[in-house]
Design brief:
alpha/beta; 2 domains; two-stranded parallel ribbon; 9 helices
């Protein structure tokens, strides 16, 4: 919650706290008594949600903030969030995640489902995360569409006044290269791909080395059926249990 507040504040935007309660049967099957109970429960949940959010603001000593609390009933969490975000033209989606359990690694979490389905950039924040200044960003790239994608990254980093390390893990080179960008807040790093480590583990090692406070990756949704069923995408693996806040852009975002 505090991470989302800080991002919204830096963007001078509104924070919408969306609470989704999944329903067991269609609206037309609900009896008048069940509908009355649902409305009563909705008011109670909304009251508790607003109390929690306002308390979080007070605890963070935020005097004024543009936010709203929304409660939605629907059949699916992921569908509801994405539908609401698209209809209301959200710039980002933010949610907490923890995928330590074995079942999460195999079946995924709500965070991984959002990552795979969303056309809107998604922040995945560890549920144990303690807010701190976002001053170092690692942006992992395959260099395929660097110019266009770097514009998105720079738009974010400029608002955060953060240093950006553009990291390319190359399977074709044994050389390590570090080059300055056009200013002191942008660096380009090329490193050989460590075949003894997974892509995710090598990125996490770099996060630790450069003391990064945000990791950005670009996910390519253009996968075949076999890969989507039998192979986890890099974005999906990282979103299961991120060590720091993770931001995923999809390559097909315009």
């Amino acid at each position: 919650m505090l991470f989302a507040m800080e991002i919204a504040r830096k963007f001078n935007g509104q924070l919408v706290v969306l609470y989704v309660t999944e329903i067991a049967k269609p609206q037309q099957w609900v009896s008048p008594e069940e509908e009355e109970h649902r409305k009563h429960r909705e008011l109670e949940i909304t009251r508790r949600l607003e109390y929690f959010v306002s308390g979080t603001f007070s605890g963070a000593e935020i005097l004024f903030f543009d936010y709203s609390c929304i409660l939605h009933y629907n059949f699916g969490f992921v569908h509801t969030v994405l539908d609401y975000a698209v209809k209301n033209d959200f710039s980002h989606i933010c949610l907490a995640t923890s995928g330590d359990r074995v079942v999460d690694r195999w079946m995924g979490t709500k965070a991984t489902a959002l990552v795979e389905e969303s056309s809107i950039p998604v922040f995945c924040v560890p549920d144990w995360y303690k807010p701190k200044s976002i001053d170092v960003i690692i942006y992992a790239t395959d260099m395929a569409y660097l110019e266009d994608e770097l514009l998105k990254v720079k738009s974010l980093s400029d608002k955060l006044s953060a240093k950006v390390y553009v990291v390319h893990l190359s399977g074709d080179s044994n050389e390590s290269k570090v080059a300055h960008g056009p200013n002191e807040l942008l660096y380009f790093i090329t490193l050989p791909r460590n075949k003894k480590m997974s892509f995710s583990d090598q990125l996490e090692e770099l996060v630790s080395r450069y003391k990064a406070s945000l990791l950005i990756i670009i996910s390519d949704k253009r996968k075949g059926f076999f890969e989507s069923v039998f192979m986890q995408s890099r974005a999906r693996k990282l979103s299961l249990n991120p060590q720091i806040p993770l931001l995923i852009y999809h390559r097909n975002i315009k």
